[in-house]
Amino acid sequence: MSVKIFIGISLDGYIADRDGGLNFLTDPPNPNNLDYGFMEFMLRIDGLVMGRKTFEAVLKSSPKWPFSKPTFVLSKTLKEVPENLEGRVDIFAGTPHEVVRAMKMKKLTRLYIDGGKVIRSFLSEDLVDEITLIQMPILLGGGTQLFGSLGAHMEFEHINTEVFQNGLLKSRYHRKP
Q: Which homologous superfamily is 2-175 in?
């Protein structure tokens, strides 16, 4: 099983501002409509796992569901998905280890994890193999942090960093064994 993260982050480590907003991710000019490697990344995964808040943000921001891969929403409160997403999006209420077991049973072996709480839970159970950060040139000074406390150090190896003309950095890391 391979568990990967691809996420935008501020210089001070936030993935959303104090109001839960994500506008800082799209504010930098992008005249060439770059996706910063996201489509290439999506070719390397076969399933998505996201939190309820991320799911609701995607629904709000996009009139059409943007993902073709099977998607699983981790939530203890969400009971159903919109009718147009039935069969494409499932709700799951388990732990990260239970999610991994369930995905293996579905023959999904390369997972994309999205959403702050979900990412932190997978990290705390040492299940993340790769992290790609798109670092935005902004300090938010507060909001939703990507990383939280861990039970032990986790070492990652820097694979590469790409610098874009608009000041964004894309850095990729693999988990050291």
A: Dihydrofolate Reductase, subunit A (3.40.430.10)
